[in-house]
Amino acid sequence: STTSPPAPQELTTVRVQDPRVQNEGSWNSYVDYKIFLHTNSKAFTAKTSCVRRRYREFVWLRRQLQKNAGLVPVPELPGKSTFFVGSTDEFIEKRRQGLQQFLEKVVQNVVLLSDSRLHLFLQSQLSVPDIEACVQGQGTQTVTEAILHYAMSNCGWVQEEESRP
């Protein structure tokens, strides 16, 4: 008997890496993280993407997903601990791991994956207000266009050089 070859399995790898302190030494310093995504899933517009996001953008994303997911439970984010015992590096690393686990669970959930905010968060460098505008059709581009524009401009890869004065 001949068996047909199995359908290729959809695989999405998401990594949260390279935490960087921005505005170091100032009162408005924060850490952002590189989110690298590689997938063969049809759910995503771009097969690979690379963006930088900070914790409070994750907090916004989780709130939006929760709003739209109805009864589907949204994974937890690592806590916003103010009393952290140990070094800052240790805290940042713990948070990085937590953020990665959060995204890994989110991208495996079909309901959450249907939220275009998630796609813009992962695959464009739009700010939160711009993501909102885009999703509500008030931006200059559609969600797909914004993602493709970002993918084409390749700024996910060249932003390292550009950020230097």
Automatic annotation (TrEMBL):
GO terms for molecular function: phosphatidylinositol phosphate binding. Its main location: cytoplasm. Pfam families: PX. Residues 11-128 form the PX domain. SUPFAM superfamilies: PX domain. It comes from the Eukaryota. It is a peripheral membrane protein. Keywords: Cytoplasm, Endosome, Lipid-binding, Membrane, Protein transport, Transport. GO terms for biological process: intracellular protein transport; vesicle organization. InterPro entries: PX_dom, PX_dom_sf, SNX10/11. Belongs to the sorting nexin family. This is SNX11 protein. It comes from Calyptomena viridis (Lesser green broadbill). The gene is Snx11.
